[in-house]
Amino acid sequence: MMNIDEIKKIIPHRYPFLLVDKILELEPGKRAVGIKNVTVNEPFFQGHFPEYPLMPGVLIVEAMAQVGAISIMSLDEYKGKLGVFTGIDGVRFRKEVRPGDVLRMEVELTAMRRGIGKAEGKAYIGEELVCSGNLMFAIVDK
């Protein structure tokens, strides 16, 4: 397991854009499982939507990407570098994510070649799949 302080040593994201609270499982360079505790105090709920707060889909995808980045960036060869999106394919949203939910993200690396990679991400609330898709990324110098 990895707590928030350890996460912040690996990826550069900070409030309000750090969307991973804890890593439950980690196989560096292969897969990671992380959680985001969704609270009504999230800044995005002020506008999305005040009467019926929903976590924006793009932020669910970003949270999955951050979990994947922790897996990749925990490898010594990528320390001090930055993982950036290069593409997103086949993303589907199946259920709303609301305050009080615990979003569990599972991300598995499916390909990596010369600093360009692909991963499959899935996000769950309990055992229910809420989002899935393929994430493409590049490892770049800061």
TrEMBL record:
Example GO BP: fatty acid biosynthetic process
GO terms for cellular component: cytoplasm; membrane
GO molecular function: (3R)-hydroxyacyl-[acyl-carrier-protein] dehydratase activity
InterPro entries named in the record: FabA_FabZ, FabZ, HotDog_dom_sf
Record flagged with keyword Lipid biosynthesis: yes
Active site per UniProt: H48
Domain of life: Bacteria
EC number in record: 4.2.1.59
PANTHER family: 3-HYDROXYACYL-[ACYL-CARRIER-PROTEIN] DEHYDRATASE (PTHR30272)
Name of this chain's protein: 3-hydroxyacyl-[acyl-carrier-protein] dehydratase FabZ
